[in-house]
Amino acid sequence: MAIALRRTSVPVNVGGVIIGGGAPVVVQSMTNTDTADVAATVEQVAALHAAGSEIVRITVNDRDAAAAVPEIVRGLRRRGVEVPLVGDFHYNGHTLLRDFPETARLLAKYRINPGNVGFGKKHDENFKAIIELAIQYEKPVRIGVNWGSLDQSMLARMMDENARREAPLSAREVMLEAMCASALESAELAESIGLPHDRIIISTKISEVQDLVEVYRAIAARCDYPLHVGLTEAGMGAKGIVASAIGIGLLLQDGIGDTIRVSLTPTPGGDRTEEVRVAQTILQTMGIRSFTPLVTACPGCGRTTSTLFQEMAQDIQTYLREQMPIWKTRYPGVEALKVAVMGCIVNGPGESKHADLGISLPGTGEDPKAPVFVDGVKTTTLEGEQIVPAFIEILNRYVERRFGQSN
């Protein structure tokens, strides 16, 4: 089944990165450092960007965090890191952006949650104040609705209206509709204040996969704003990765989604950049974008009692990732390279032939030799303790020959 044509959306410029308008789906991430800790935040933003995050969001929750933003930008520039920073605002964004004009100027985008800008009469006043600052500094805005912080007055009003219907909707259906309404009414209000149509991005994020798919399908049909897609809280480990891959993948398959974030909960002291790699892998395995050569490897069975193919697959995937910062500028197109490391004769030769470069390692009872296939043709056979370095040397020569700029 082919991926649907991308939904039509207006292009929005976020610090030089285009979201929507048919541009490639953008990968973004968010720091979990205390933004006021300049050194730690610069370190993590740089790491996320190096891993492939094209936009990085930071929390701007108090005056110390707001005051730190210019120092963070300067610290990144000293490292040669140019990545759009998005300010994440809740409750007090109107005052922080007003009181810290350099921060308002340096941030590439403001993220606003309509449920957390104020309550009662203050809601529209505070929202208007942020939008007017976005207009003044010519910044785009993401109107990010979250189910856990949905505008309660709107939800209550819609629940009351629903109760008066002859055939009331379920509470779940009303909540999903309220999320769409909150985003679209906020966007309409922002435009009425003067924010251009092409400076608005929308998200309606939720934590359950089926709800996520339903609410994004609904809002995609009702507007042409670019959509930021992802679960609000995906969770930890396999659960978070699987839920994100299914939810985001189903929407991308429908042509919905202009930028994505995988909101993984890292293990204590874990690597924050994992969420970037997962987002990239979702896009790459779906054939939407390519970021780094991927290794196809068999899962192993009773025929592959040796762990050599597992170790070799891991070593080669690590090697490819380590080379990409150099290769992506030296060898254009190398990110689409396909490598296969297989463990026995059953599928080994076939998979290796389908890859650009493949090796079929010997399984239990097989001849202790490893045929190597290049562009579907067997070119040599490796054996002995130097199989891995010998294959990497073949890999390097292939990359140079196929992707070298002279070609």
Description:
The chain is α/β, with parallel strands linked by helices and 407 residues long. The chain has helices at 38-51, 63-78, 93-99, 101-106, 121-136, 152-163, 171-193, 209-220, 237-253, 274-285, 308-330, 348-354, 387-403, and strands at 12-14, 17-19, 26-30, 55-59, 85-89, 109-112, 141-146, 200-205, 228-229, 235-236, 259-260, 264-265, 294-297, 338-342, 357-360, 370-374, 377-382. The longest helix is centred in the middle third of the chain and has 23 residues, at 171-193. The model has no long low-confidence stretch (mean pLDDT 94). The strands form 4 sheets. An 8-stranded parallel sheet has the order 8-7-6-5-4-3-11-9. A 5-stranded mixed sheet has the order 13-14-15-16-17, sandwiched between helices. It has a two-stranded antiparallel sheet with strand order 1-2. The protein is elongated. The relative contact order is 0.09. Pathway: Isoprenoid biosynthesis; isopentenyl diphosphate biosynthesis via DXP pathway; isopentenyl diphosphate from 1-deoxy-D-xylulose 5-phosphate: step 5/6. [4Fe-4S] cluster binds at residues 298, 301, 344, 351. Residues 11-280 form the IspG TIM-barrel domain.
